[in-house]
TrEMBL record:
EC number: 2.1.1.107
Pathway: Porphyrin-containing compound metabolism; siroheme biosynthesis; precorrin-2 from uroporphyrinogen III: step 1/1; Cofactor biosynthesis; adenosylcobalamin biosynthesis; precorrin-2 from uroporphyrinogen III: step 1/1
Keyword ATP-binding attributed: no
Regions crossing the membrane: none
Annotated protein name in UniProt: uroporphyrinogen-III C-methyltransferase
GO MF terms held by the record: uroporphyrin-III C-methyltransferase activity; uroporphyrinogen-III synthase activity
Domain Tetrapyrrole methylase: residue ranges: 7-225
Origin species: Bythopirellula polymerisocia
BP-aspect Gene Ontology terms: cobalamin biosynthetic process; methylation; siroheme biosynthetic process
NCBIfam families cross-referenced by the UniProt entry: cobA_cysG_Cterm, PRK06136.1
UniProt-listed Pfam families: HEM4 (PF02602), TP_methylase (PF00590)
Length: 515
């Protein structure tokens, strides 16, 4: 049977900040079989979409070349590879910096796709020229000085068959000129504009590393632009804005280091989140709100139990238990999903009281419209055992747990006269190998904090990274987790006083701003 052809999605990744990709583009990355991406696309985008993690390595990620690191593919080669992958029935994402239609050679790729009879879709992105305006505080249009904008390339193709840029007309253009890829040719085109009548005193702004924490906004005049770039040794990538709007820039742009640090105390910092993949997004969002860039590298993998026999037996015997005890949100999900999948519903729990180790576990119960009858003030096994022991003596409890972990809860309750039945409801396994992106950033000292949210994660990180852990600061969710790190020779720099992810965030912020 002939395999149906796939589809090509031409996706704009936005101007730089990984969070500025569109929701549509992000979701397509999550379901792609092959991703062809430009070297200017921040790999964090791929990381957030799960494409750089161990379990996603069956998907193909193809960088189309970067300067100084091997050969850059020609446009013809790119077209051929896109067509070949889609013709083989794969879902292909062609990920481009900025917007696909702005200096992205999209027309050539669409022509090749159409010629091959393949289906495609174009997903727009925020182009760098517009982002440079928003992030620098320089309006591209202004009712008093500019009612139009021209987006211009500073690097025209040698193979171009139509007329070259008409710099004489651009010199008379009654609006703002926004140059892409114009740094290396700036001395030439600025001189040409002046020779055709553009005022030598026209204000110019250079916006480098737009949307990133190290963004620079530098200002000069058209006549001084070439020498200014040379003397400051400014290199691409950069957007150059030419026009009187530059003089209309806000006096205190919202996106400046000083301004951002007032409201986003981790602005410009990079944090490594090591929770299981399905639990990373919420924490990543919280770090983003604090100004940090987050990389996700799960240290442990959560999976279904090796068999369901003991869980199914416990579900069938629920009426014999006085308490259900959940030591994690994962336990809640796997047990209750299995209960519902068996054809039963929550009425089976009518005879049971429910204990949860902490707020995250309680919140997971609430997703199933269940309330915890007991939650300790201190979110650890010892505190849960101490609070539950006097209530469960002489009674039968079902402890729903991971495949590994401490025995302190079961041992303490058993010693207090409680009948304890334990059921493993999910597997917790170490991730053996980190993504290349994460390892390279860690070894280069580009990761400021590593979050450690359990003892199992602490041990796995030590095995995964070893001495490279010393190149970052470790933040532990509890003294117990910090103790595991310390015993391995990697003391935590920050330890949460409230054993939650919010407590972990607070500990990092407080430690960062302490003397």
């Amino acid at each position: 049977m002939r395999k149906e052809p796939g589809k090509v999605y031409l996706v704009g990744a936005g101007p730089g900040d990984p969070s500025l990709i569109t929701l549509r583009g992000f979701r397509l990355l999550e379901c792609a079989d092959v991703v062809f991406y430009d070297y200017l696309v921040d790999p964090v985008v791929l990381n957030h979409a799960g494409l750089l993690r161990e379990e996603s390595r069956k998907r193909e990620l193809i960088c189309l070349g970067r300067h100084g690191e091997g050969r850059i593919l020609t446009q013809e080669e790119i077209n051929q590879q896109i067509v070949a992958a889609a013709s083989a029935g794969k879902v292909v994402v062609r990920l481009k910096g900025g917007d696909p239609a702005i200096f992205g050679r999209t027309a050539e790729e669409i022509s090749a796709i159409e010629s091959a009879g393949l289906h495609y879709e174009v997903i727009p992105g925020v182009t760098s020229g517009l982002a440079a305006s928003s992030y620098s505080g320089i309006p591209l249009t202004h009712r008093d000085v500019a009612s139009c904008v021209a987006l211009i390339t500073g690097q025209e193709s040698d193979a171009k068959t139509s007329e070259a840029l008409d710099l004489a007309s651009l010199a008379k253009f009654p609006g703002t000129l926004v140059y892409y890829m114009g740094v290396t040719t700036a001395r030439d085109w600025s001189a040409e504009l002046i020779s055709h009548g553009k005022s030598a005193e026209t204000p110019v702004a250079i916006v480098r590393h737009c949307t990133f924490a190290d963004q620079q906004v530098l200002k000069t005049t058209l006549s001084e632009l070439g020498e200014f770039l040379s003397s400051h040794r400014l290199r691409p990538p950069a957007i150059i804005i030419v026009g009187n709007v530059v003089a209309s820039a806000t006096s205190s742009p919202w996106f400046s280091v000083a301004q951002q640090q007032l409201t986003r105390p981790l602005f410009g910092k990079t944090v490594l989140i090591t929770r299981p993949e399905h639990q990373s997004n919420d924490l990543a969002s919280k770090f983003h709100e604090l100004g940090a860039i987050s990389l996700c590298q799960p240290a442990i993998h959560i999976a279904p139990p090796q068999d369901w026999e003991s869980i199914d037996r416990a579900i069938a015997e629920l009426a014999s238990f006085n308490w259900l005890v959940f030591s994690s949100a994962n336990g809640v999900k796997y047990f209750l999903d299995r209960l519902i999948a068996s054809g039963r519903d929550l009425r089976q729990l009518a005879s049971c009281q429910i204990a949860a180790i902490g707020p995250a576990t309680t919140a997971a119960l609430q997703q199933y419209h269940l309330q915890a009858d007991l939650q300790p003030e201190e979110y650890r096994a010892e505190a849960l055992a101490a609070k539950l022991a006097p209530l469960s003596a002489g009674k039968h409890i079902l402890l729903l747990r991971a495949s590994r972990g401490r025995e302190v809860l079961a041992d303490t309750l058993t010693a207090a006269g409680t009948k304890v039945s334990q059921v493993v409801v999910y597997q917790s396994e170490d991730v053996k190998e980190p993504s290349r992106l994460v390892l390279e950033n860690l070894r280069a000292g580009k990761i400021d904090w590593i979050t450690v949210t359990s003892s199992a994660i602490a041990r796995s990180l030590v095995q995964m990274f070893g001495e490279d852990l010393r190149k970052s600061r470790l933040a532990a969710i509890s003294p117990l987790t910090a103790e595991v790190l310390s015993e391995a020779g990697f003391p935590a720099t920050a330890v949460a006083s409230e054993y939650t992810t919010q407590g972990l965030l607070d500990a990092i912020v407080n430690r960062f701003h302490s003397p």
